[in-house]
Every structure is written in C-alpha cells, then in structure tokens.
Amino acid sequence: MHLGWELKLVIGGELIASQVCRNSEQVLTTSEQWKKAMIEKAWDVTGHHRTHPIRLWVSTHENGWEAWIAQMRDGTFTAWACLAGQNAVATYIEDSFEHGCAGALFDLGRLSGHQVCGANCTTWQEREH
Asked: Which domain holds residue 28?
C-alpha cells in the first residue's frame, strides 16, 4: 500500500528540510515553496551561493519554451525549463550531461505539457554566458 512520498531538501550533504506528501500535488507545492524560499535567500538549488556555470546549453521548443543545462564548477549539471526569455532556477542537479538532458526535458514536459519534439524544436546548442 502506497501512503505517499517523503520529500527531502539536501544541500551539500546536509538535510535542510523533510516533508511527507500524500499526493503528487503536495509534492509539487512543497518543492515550489522550498525553491521560492531558496531564491529569496539568494541560493540556487545546487546549494551554491549564486555560482556561475562554466558551460550552458539550450534546446528551444515549438511551444515557446526552452530547456536548459548548465555545467557547474563542481562537475554537476543543473537542469530546468522555462518560457523563452524568462528567468528560472535550476530544478534538477545531475551527475552527467545526459542526465541533465533528461532532467531538463522532464521539466519541460511537466511544466509545459510538451511531450514530443517536432520539426521546429532544436537539439542542444551551447550558449555563451
């Protein structure tokens, strides 16, 4: 019997917060609240105080959204999706470029409903930062 999920916020190996969620809506609401609190405190989700990536990639999509991957100085890859031209914070922290791609595209589908790329979607392109 599935009773829910335990959502944990871990930064630098330290447990910052923990919440038991009964449904997926509560998981999303809790994670968004935690992300908002981190932004207000000027932290990104990697636990770094506004670090700058060493490389950036973007994939643009026909629905007006973009998926992003950033390689950080510690070797991790952060990933997120947002409307083109909008600011966003990393949603996922991954250990490889490939996992970053998967995380960014998952976020794209979750937030925008975009599930299948068409002819007007681009592959990953490195961007200057």
From this structure: 5-40
Would you state the pLDDT for residue 13?
A: 67
CA gap 42, 108 in Å, rounded: 24
Per-residue confidence (pLDDT) for residue 11, from 0 to 100: 66
* Cβ within 8 Å of residue 125, ≥6 positions away: 57, 58, 59
Token pair of 76, please? Answer: 């991790």
For the segment 50-79, the average pLDDT, to the nearest whole number, is 88
User: What phi and psi, each to the nearest 5 degrees, are found at residue 58?
Assistant: -135, 145
Q: How confident is the model at residue 97 (pLDDT cuts 50, 70, 90)?
A: very high
Question: What is the distance between the alpha carbons of residues 68 and 98, in angstroms, rounded to a whole number?
Answer: 12
In a domain, 50, yes or no: no
Contacts of 77 (CB under 8 A, 6+ apart): 69, 70, 71, 93, 94, 95, 96, 97, 99, 100
Are 120 and 60 members of one domain? yes
